Structure formats: structure tokens, C-alpha cells
Amino acid sequence: MRAADAVSQLRPRLSLRGRLYLFSGAILILFAINVATSLWGSLARNESSLAYQEAATAAQLTAELEQNLQTKRQQVLVLATLRETTDEPLDDVALGQARADLEIIGERLRQLGGYGGQDLEAYYRRLHDSVTALLREWQLFYDRYNSVEPLPDVESALSYSNTQQRLQELDQRQSFVALQRANAIDRTISLTDQITVVGFISSIAITLALVFAMIRSTNASLTRMKRGVERFGSGDLTYRIDEQRDSGEIGDLARTFNEMSTKLQVAIEEMNTARADADSANAAKSMFLANVSHELRTPLNAIIGYSEMLQDELGDGTDIDREQFHHDLSTIIFSGKQLLNLINDILDLSKIETGKMQVSHEIFSPAGLLVQVCDALSPLLAQNKNRLSLNIDKNSMRDINSDRGKLQQIVTNLFSNACKFTKEGEITVSASMTAQSLIIAVSDTGIGMTRAQQDRVFDAFTQAEANTGLKYGGTGLGLAIVKEFCAMLGGSISLESEPGKGSIFRVTLPADPASVPASA
Fold first, then answer.
1. DSSP code per residue over 88-120
2. DSSP secondary structure string, 20-88?
3. What is the dihedral of CA 291, 293, 294, 299, to 10 degrees?
4. For 463, which of 94, 240, 282, 468 could close a Cys bridge (C-beta 3.0–4.6 Å)?
5. What is the 3-state composition of the chain as percent helix, strand, coil, each rounded to the nearest 5?
6. Cβ atoms within 10 A of the Cβ of 389, count?
7. Of 45, 172, 63, 183, whose CA–CA distance to 116 is shortest?
8. How high is the pLDDT of residue 104?
């Protein structure tokens, strides 16, 4: 469990690839340790085998050396006895064989010196000196055997006994050293076997712990991903996968899902907003159609009604009341103009939306235009018993180069709008000029507007409230057209209003034709 906790702590800083590399490396290290331990045990076993072979070889050489010494000792004693009893000499073959036997003993001695190492060096030196001395005596014995010179004393057992003693000491020491070395090697083999078993069991346990930790950490990461995907699939786009819990590929995947959720949430919100706007626009257009139907029927009913009345009067054959006849014709003309203005507004908005509305420049006096428009619209004041206040700064006014017709329609729409929403109040039209701009303000003391109503009053097909068209008339196109015409002329329009205190529409237009766009 400690390995699992360690991996759990490393999880936020390791990617899935890093975890796989870490766990694979750990397993490989454990496998390498097991292999190294096994090789160590094999090496120890090889050393044990070699040690046993060396001990056996050394023992065999010692036994052969001892046997050769005994055999040669007996031969020398026999020859010495024969020399004393007979004078028969040894032939060359016998002498050669005797010298060969001595060479074999010397060779066995040299071979024995190659085993044992430093632990047996002192014993071997003593044996070597003793055997060498004994071999010199025997060599001298054979050299003088056929001569008249006296033979060395070979019957004395002192040199041979000393050699036998040294040989036994070496043999005992060899056995002791071999036993110690065998015990050490056996302990090493036992230790390596224990380490191998413990390492194997530990490797299995650690590998299982690492695999469990790997599975648990990866499963936790994938579970978080699955939970997030399920929440996203159920429509909960506000849910976010904890991308800080993972790094690398899974962290990138979690981050990608979160970004996708955010973008999808924004897209859905935009879609809902667009749908709401579309629904609002459809509702506004539906209301606009209802208002247009009402606005169209009103002047049409007046035109048709008064026309039928005039037709009936002419058909009666009675004298015509010229004053009443003139009044009826004026009503027909006024209704026709209303109908024409409504159609013109619809056509103007259609041209603006399709980009076909053109701007034509001409030099004219804005002061004269304002006076002319106010005179022409003076009948609107009488409908709601309003008063007009015309305030033109004649000292600053001068001719401008702009679109006369559009400026006239801007003032007409603002003036009509003020008269419509004001009863027994005052309509004020003011104008002044600066070096670069013409400023026209139309204010009233009518019903005013709230901030929410001001935000949508310039939208096409929209009025301040849904029932405004039914209560006060109009289609909701006038102020939208004013705003578009102001933009086409390179200017702007602003609104100041409070409920119950009236409104002020302020139009600012450039007097410089270079700032006026050619078309829209």
C-alpha cells in the first residue's frame, strides 16, 4: 500500500505515459536484481565446483607424490643392498629409468605447487626444500652407483621421514583450506538462494502493488473522464472535469473536454439568445403587421368613406355645400398623405436594409427647412392641443451641404413622434451650428420613457411598449428610419428621457460633405 500511496502522490505530476515508463522501469530493475542474484549464485556454484576439483586434484597429486616417493625409496634401498653384496653395475637403461622416475617426482612436486595459493605457500616451500634435498641424494646415489666412489647414506630415514612429514603437513593444510573454502562457498550459495527466493517473492509483491497502483490511478482518471462525459451527455455543460488531478495525455483530454463544454455552452447560449432575438423579432414583426394593418385601414376607411359621401352628394342632385365638400376633400387628401407616408416609411426601411438607399448632396439652409417642416406639420399640434416653440440660433446658422430630403424626414419623424406622445403640452424644436456640425433637438413634455424603453426605441418594428401602437398609433418605423438616416449622413442621434417628464431627441450632423457617405 505504501507503493500505491507513493504513486498516488506522483499522479498529478506524471502523465499516463510517464506512469507506464515508471512502472515498467521498476519491474525491469526488479527483474535485473533477480537475474544478478541468480548469476551470483551460479558463479558461487561454479567456484564451489572448481574448488572441489582443485582439492581433488591436489589430493591426487599428493597421493601420487607420496606413492612415487615410497616406490623410489624402496628401489634405492634395494639397489643399495645389492651394491653392498655384489659389484654388478646398473646398465644405462636402468639408470635412465631411475633418472626419469626422479624427473617424474620433481614434475609432480611442481604441479602440486600450482594449487593452494598463498594459504599453502609456506607449507609447499618446506615440502619443496625437503623433496629437493631428498631427490639430490637419490640423484647422487645413481650417479656414483657404477663408480668406485662411496655411495651416500641412503639407508638413513631422516631425509625421507622429514619429506613424509612435510607432505602430510601440506596434505592436512590442503584439506583444511579446502574445507574452509567449501564452507564459505556453501554459505554464499545459501545466501544467494535466500536472496533469490526473497527477491522473487518481493518482486512479485512489488509488481502486484505497482500494477494495482497503476490500475487504480488510471481507473480513477478514466472514471473522472467518464463521469464528465456522462454529465456533458446529460446536458450539464456547467460541469468541469478536474484537469489538475492529471497531467499528460489524460490531463490534455480533460482540458479538451472542458474547452469543448465551454464552447458548446457558449454556442447554446448564443443560439438561445439568437432564438430569443428571432422570437422577439417575429413578435415585433407580428405587432408591426397588426399596427400597419390598423394604420392602413384608418386612412383607407377615411378615404373610402368620404369619397362615397361625396359621390352620394353629387348623385342627389341637390345643391352642394361647398364648405362641407371642401372639408371632406381635405380629409381625403390628409388621409392619402398619411397612407403615402406610411408606405414611404416601409419602402425607405426596405431600401436601407437592402443597401439601396442613396444619399444626394445639395446646398440648402437648414433654418428655412426647419421652419417649412414645422409649418407643414402644424395641424398635428391641434390634434392633442399642443404648443410649438421654435428656437433657432440665427447667428450660428448657415447653409450646409447634405441630403435635404433625409434631413426633412428626420425632423418630420421626430416632430410627429413628439406630437403623438404629448397631450396639452409643449413641443420645442431648436437648432444651432458649430464649425463642423449641425445640432437639431426636438423635445416634448409628453409621457417620457424608462431606461429599458430607451434601449429598444430605435429598433425597427419596435415601440416602447407592446400596446403603444394600439394606444397612440404608429408602426414603430419612424425612429428606426431616423437613426439609419443619421448614420447615412455621417451623424448620430441621442435620447434623454424620464417617465412623465418628456423626451429630448438630439441629432448631430456634419456640415462638411467629405464626412458624409455616398450611399448606404
1. PPPPHHHHHHHHHHHHHHHHHHHHHHTSSGGGG
2. HHHHHHHHHHHHHHHHHHHHHHHHHHHHHHHHHHHHHHHHHHHHHHHHHHHHHHHHHHHHHHHHHH--P
3. 130
4. 468
5. 70, 10, 20
6. 10
7. 172
8. 87
Residue 408 in grid coordinates: 426633412
pLDDT of residue 8: 47
Q: What is the pLDDT of residues 76-127, one digit of tens each?
A: 788 777 777 777 777 888 888 888 888 888 888 888 777 766 777 888 788 8
Listed residue (190, 192, 212) closest to 200, CA to CA: 192
DSSP state of 127: H
Residues β-bridged to residue 430: 391, 441
Q: Are 418 and 387 in contact (CB under 8 A)?
A: no
Predicted pLDDT of residue 246 = 62
Contacts of 390 (CB under 8 A, 6+ apart): 370, 371, 374, 428, 429, 430
Max Cα–Cα distance, the chain, nearest Å: 208
Whole-angstrom distance, CA of residue 195 vs CA of residue 251 = 41
Residue 126 makes CB contacts below 8 A (sequence gap 6+) with 166, 169, 170
Are 115 and 54 within 8 A, CB to CB? yes
Within 234-321, residue ranges assigned H as helices are 248-316
**Contact by Cβ (8 Å): 503, 449:** yes
pLDDT at 248: 64
Backbone angles phi, psi at 157, to 5 degrees: -95, 10
Question: Which residues are within 8 A (CB) of 202 and not within 5 positions of it... i.e. 6 or more apart?
Answer: 30
Q: Which residue has the cell 498516488?
A: 8
Cell numbers 621421514 correspond to 161
Could you identify the residue written with the cell 386612412?
A: 299
* Strand 492-498 with 426-433, pairing: unpaired
Q: pLDDT value at position 287?
A: 61
Low-confidence ranges of the chain (pLDDT < 50): 1-4, 6-12, 464, 469-470, 514-520
Q: How far is CA 290 from the centre of its chain?
A: 54
Secondary structure tally for the chain: helices H, strands E: 13, 7
Q: Residue 71 is placed in which grid cell?
A: 616406490
In 10 A of CB 178, how many CB atoms?
20
pTM, two decimals, is 0.44
Cell 472535469 belongs to which residue? Answer: 241
Considering only CA atoms, which of 506, 379, 364 is closest in space to residue 431? 506
- Looking at residue 271, what is its pLDDT? 85
Res 23: pLDDT:
74
pLDDT of residue 462: 62
Contact present, 21 and 210 (Cβ < 8 Å): no
Distance between CA 415 and CA 410 in Å, rounded?
Answer: 9
